[in-house]
Design brief:
By secondary structure, this protein is α/β, with parallel strands linked by helices. It contains 7 helices and 10 strands.
């Protein structure tokens, strides 16, 4: 039995007549920031939904922390941030966090820590509906961090953010991993690949790469990850 916090084996997902994921297998150990990269529509979100346990799978298996994905026992141990902000627009930043903190049973101090962690202290009393898209995404991230999750699944959390904040959030992801968390981050921005400990590259629902950034560049002879991705796609065609 695997001890990896995330273990995916032969995963297949078919939606209607479209194969969203095709025989995907990998494991993610604790203490790593793993990047899930690929163009829009390649299956990243479907894979993340499968890991969280909200996606009906067609074949294969997904286990998280030794339990089948979606098990009730995992709800407080996984932090999940979707592409669309999953918070209440008619509440302030602080009110949103206090509401979810009450559901999770975490302290007011943790609410304040998470507000600061995502750099929203100045906006804590603003209505979420009046924030920018990037700020709303950060509120969702703060909510996901409230329970100090063991596994953090982030679906394109840096979309719409300025370069400084993107840098700071990636530093936060690595601090969480250094503390023992498993962090899976999806992105379609290839230059974020160098911020990851390991890369999973998807295309058309198939896993093409499971390597460190340096190993990927060495194996393809490319000068950057985007060039490496193009080389792999051409080789797989």
């Amino acid at each position: 039995m695997t001890t990896s916090p995330i273990a995916v084996a032969g995963l297949g997902v078919v939606r209607g007549r479209v194969t969203a994921l095709d025989d995907v297998s990998f494991e993610v150990p604790a203490g790593q920031v793993v990047g899930l990269l690929g163009p829009s529509g390649c299956g990243k979100s479907t894979l993340m939904r499968s890991i969280v346990g909200v996606q009906k799978i067609t074949s294969g298996s997904v286990s998280v922390l030794g339990e089948p994905a979606g098990s009730a026992s995992l709800r407080s141990r996984i932090g999940y941030v979707t592409q669309a902000a999953s918070v209440y627009e008619d509440l302030t930043v602080a009110e949103n966090l206090r509401f979810f903190a009450a559901v999770l049973g975490v302290s007011a101090q943790r609410v304040e820590e998470c507000v600061v962690l995502v750099d929203l202290a100045r906006q804590r009393n603003q209505l979420v509906g009046r924030l920018s898209g990037g700020q709303r995404s950060r509120v969702s991230l703060a909510v996901a961090l409230l329970g100090d999750p063991t596994v953090l699944v982030l679906d394109e959390p840096t979309v719409g953010l300025d370069p400084v904040l993107r840098r700071d959030l990636w530093a936060t992801f690595h601090r969480l991993a250094d503390a023992g968390a498993t962090v899976l981050v999806s992105s379609h921005v290839m230059d974020e690949a160098t911020r990851c400990d390991r890369l999973l590259v998807l295309r058309d629902g198939r896993l093409l790469v499971d390597q460190t950034p340096s190993a990927l560049l060495e194996s393809t002879g490319a000068h950057d990850v985007e060039a490496a991705f193009l080389a792999i796609v051409e080789a797989a065609s």
